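Researcher: Please predict.
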Amino acid sequence: MLGKEETPATPKTTPEAKAAISEPQRSVSDNQPVAGSSPRRVLSRDQHNISRSMISENALKVLYRLHKAGYQGYLVGGGVRDLLLGKIPKDFDVVTDAHPEQIRKLFNNCRLIGRRFRLAHIVFGRDIIEVATFRGHHHQVHTSKNIAVQSEEGMLLRDNVYGTIEEDAERRDFTVNALYYNIKDFSLHDFHGGLDDLAAGRLELIGDPETRYREDPVRMLRAVRFAAKLGLTISERSAEPIPRLASLLQDIPAARLFEETIKLFLAGHALSTYHLLRKFGLFQQLFPQVAKLLTPDNNSAYERFLEKALANSDKRVATEQPVTPTFFYATLLWGVVALRQREISNESNLPFQDSMQMAMNEAIEQQIHTVAIPRRFTSDVREIWLLQERLPRYSGKRAEKLFAQAKFRAAFDFLELRAHVEPRLRDIVAWWQDYQQTHDFVRPEHTTTRPARTADAEQQPRNEEHPPRKRPRRRRRYPQHPGQRRND
């Protein structure tokens, strides 16, 4: 796929990349421009550091097929932005002037998704390249093929309006995401001063911030996520409306907010994201019952526990260890559950198990009204919580039974985090650490999958003298005609 245009390069911040981001002569003015007013800048191949060797092979296949079919094909958004910053993109998105139905005709491995905005997913096994048609201005067109619908509050409900690349750039959320890499000539297109904003460490919204946030309130969460992930500062004009409009998140479907929380807290920047969400008044919109436990000085035992858990999650991501929504929500809602369990127990004198079950049910039921946590996660969350009461009681054969629990390791990690703010648990944690060191080799595997055949087993010849017995075929029974007797 590589031609004479370039030599392979590694994704690092090269001198060319720094020049592409920070050359002063290309700025519109010495003063900060209003987002959307910057002229289009086109950087030729020798003026930026993006090489085709940095782009995934599947993304290149999609771009080249679109180009050969006579359509425009651009790499856009986070993939371009991250390459300029010397980061390895997690995925690559493509935009084109081809409509979804035309894209589907080009790719046999294409599936169309989305109602609010129609998208094409080109599937290469586990790798999916998302292809979108250039978006247009929703207030200009309203036909059977180009439909946009807004609520009374200005939120976009449907947005299948197609346009030009210039219009598509105006419809992007942030200037640093309005960067396009053209596969035709390997040029880089900057429509709204995104390169200048990257150089300044600034996150700038395109267009009027209040209007854009009302169109899609999730953009406020995206602003926080990008600021935390990229180490950027949200500009004053982009940050000012967020606290006033934070309540608009209540109109977003709970299922969509679950997906957004996964992006916010499981990407390796959970702690900084948490602080920004609190700063802009967004945290209480996502987790209202948790927000009631927060203090102005951020120094309660629960807050220290939560920050320790978020910092631990970031460390695991940095070392390529797995993180799960189960553990995140278990730590997030623990303060609510523990407090409510004590209240129920004091009010009704119920046994611990009963009061704990009631507290867990209340906490999860209230949370799923704002963020819809799937049941497969909430069931595991409950198990981690219930094991917190059982782990301190390890005498006799209880330790062996607890150690065999499927969620033992997660429950122990949870207990270890609690010990940082609850000194009474430290001896219990130390005992379990010693136990695991001496018993880990006999710990049973908890799996429901069949073991895979090894290479040796695949190559082993069959025993022709004693072939494996075949299961007998079941005789098919045909319905009898009414009045017909079976012939025995």
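Model: The first strand starts at residue 41 and ends at 43.
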